[in-house]
Amino acid sequence: MGNIVAIVGRPNVGKSTLFNRLTGTRKAIVNETAGVTRDRNYGKADWNGTEFSLIDTGGFSVNSDDIFEEEIRKQVMLAIDESDAILFVLDVQHGLTDFDQAVAKILRRTKKKVYVVANKADNSELIYAANEFYSLGIGDLVYPISSVNGSGTGDMLDALVADFIEKPEEDDMDLPRIAFVGRPNVGKSSTVNALLGVDRNIVTDVAGTTRDSIHTRFQGFGHDFIMVDTAGVRKKPKVNEDLEFYSVMRSIRTIESADVCVLILDATRGVEAQDLAIYDMVIKNRKGCVVMVNKWDLLSKETNTMKEFEADIRKRLAPFNDVPIVFTSAVEKVRLIKVLENAITVYENRVRKIKTSELNKVMLKAIENFRPPAVKGKFIQIKYVSQLPTFAPTFAFYCNLPQYIRDSYKRYLENQIRDNWDFTGVPIQIFVRKK
Ligand code: GDP
Ligand code: GDP
């Protein structure tokens, strides 16, 4: 399991610019069919082969200058609880503000690693000015960086990654790890209790359960797997607090330590922004996914409701929406076993390995039927394909001119793979390599 790094700081210091630079993203995901823009607050970053999760806490609040200090205080404390390291971003061109001092006061009290990042240090004069931030008394060093031109980020990342703690696998059992995730009140505990309550004897706490997560072995209905949950460090937020921030922060560890995530939605609410934020996190981690539409008992049903509901959910989840969708009631115990069965199937899909000979037989034919278009008069030839020995399905296509293979063609390849083998519920990665 990787380390989790949170970016904190007041509005406009450059948190999202830094986030985009470190995760290599440029813009928010725009889902044109559904007409929604998804903010990217959570992403994966990689520095010299070390992968980590990055969360931009500022992405959750309105970017206004008069955010309540109390709200920020709560966000920062939750970020401290849920992450392994903090990037405290300041604006060297603007200098220290009362707001910065308030955040610093909270950060000084944590035992977690905090890095003081002096952003907007675009030139040597500004790099020198960054020394002002030593007065905060946090950490040993101030890291002057420019998120816009990238200078200084290498030194900062070297320090960050060098301090990472090696995280041991949380249990060594070779069983599917399944997690129930979703924002507060969708029915996560009701579901887990309903499943576990069937027969308490089928449940054993697994040794190696850490402070952060609880692993419970479940044996019953012909299944044997581990249910992953995170320990409730903090209580559920009150109604007016930032539910999205809370549910995203609280889900990171759970998602990262699972193989398959059951994303629970509330049927009475439909798909909301925070549901999509959690879904994106599952997909970015290349975990398997099952969508569970809970509280179905509360809806008055006409003949087509389920079909329409399902179509609408798929539209909202796009581009990747090839996931099982199950309509349930946790209180009435309806179709919960079906959710489990789907989760196990998705797990099997995720560990599926296609024989190279079979893969080539099918895919080379599909490529022959629809060749990548020639570019500048050059013929593009894909000669060979193999599935890489990775934990999540990854396919490498070997090609004479990999740089000319477009994303649309990669999507064609992915669709062909999905048409020929069952990868329902599982994100697939396609690489094109030079041969
Ligand atoms: P956030 O509210 O903390 O997420 O801040 P943003 O990332 O939205 O950045 C606020 C403004 O600062 C934007 O206009 C950015 O272009 C600008 N900015 C961010 N990083 C830098 C930097 O390194 N140098 C300069 N000169 N401007 C920056
Ligand atoms: P969690 O915060 O996601 O763990 O949600 P809970 O399991 O605590 O459920 C929140 C509320 O929704 C509780 O009052 C549950 O009784 C109720 N609830 C959960 N599942 C269902 C369901 O399938 N149908 C109905 N009618 N209520 C449900």
From TrEMBL:
<comment type="similarity">
    <text>Belongs to the TRAFAC class TrmE-Era-EngA-EngB-Septin-like GTPase superfamily. EngA (Der) GTPase family.</text>
</comment>
<dbReference type="InterPro" id="IPR032859">
    <property type="entry name" value="KH_dom-like"/>
</dbReference>
<keyword id="KW-0677">Repeat</keyword>
<comment type="function">
    <text>GTPase that plays an essential role in the late steps of ribosome biogenesis.</text>
</comment>
<feature type="binding site">
    <location>
        <begin position="56"/>
        <end position="60"/>
    </location>
    <ligand>
        <name>GTP 1</name>
    </ligand>
</feature>
<feature type="binding site">
    <location>
        <begin position="182"/>
        <end position="189"/>
    </location>
    <ligand>
        <name>GTP 2</name>
    </ligand>
</feature>
<dbReference type="GO" id="GO:0016787">
    <property type="term" value="F:hydrolase activity"/>
</dbReference>
<dbReference type="InterPro" id="IPR027417">
    <property type="entry name" value="P-loop_NTPase"/>
</dbReference>
<protein>
    <recommendedName>
        <fullName>GTPase Der</fullName>
    </recommendedName>
</protein>
<keyword id="KW-0547">Nucleotide-binding</keyword>
<dbReference type="InterPro" id="IPR015946">
    <property type="entry name" value="KH_dom-like_a/b"/>
</dbReference>
<dbReference type="Pfam" id="PF01926">
    <property type="entry name" value="MMR_HSR1"/>
</dbReference>
<dbReference type="Pfam" id="PF14714">
    <property type="entry name" value="KH_dom-like"/>
</dbReference>
<feature type="domain" description="EngA-type G">
    <location>
        <begin position="176"/>
        <end position="351"/>
    </location>
</feature>
<keyword id="KW-0342">GTP-binding</keyword>
<dbReference type="InterPro" id="IPR031166">
    <property type="entry name" value="G_ENGA"/>
</dbReference>
<feature type="binding site">
    <location>
        <begin position="9"/>
        <end position="16"/>
    </location>
    <ligand>
        <name>GTP 1</name>
    </ligand>
</feature>
<feature type="binding site">
    <location>
        <begin position="294"/>
        <end position="297"/>
    </location>
    <ligand>
        <name>GTP 2</name>
    </ligand>
</feature>
<keyword id="KW-0690">Ribosome biogenesis</keyword>
<feature type="binding site">
    <location>
        <begin position="229"/>
        <end position="233"/>
    </location>
    <ligand>
        <name>GTP 2</name>
    </ligand>
</feature>
<comment type="subunit">
    <text>Associates with the 50S ribosomal subunit.</text>
</comment>
<dbReference type="InterPro" id="IPR006073">
    <property type="entry name" value="GTP-bd"/>
</dbReference>
<dbReference type="InterPro" id="IPR005225">
    <property type="entry name" value="Small_GTP-bd"/>
</dbReference>
<feature type="binding site">
    <location>
        <begin position="119"/>
        <end position="122"/>
    </location>
    <ligand>
        <name>GTP 1</name>
    </ligand>
</feature>
<dbReference type="InterPro" id="IPR016484">
    <property type="entry name" value="GTPase_Der"/>
</dbReference>
<keyword id="KW-0378">Hydrolase</keyword>
<feature type="domain" description="EngA-type G">
    <location>
        <begin position="3"/>
        <end position="168"/>
    </location>
</feature>
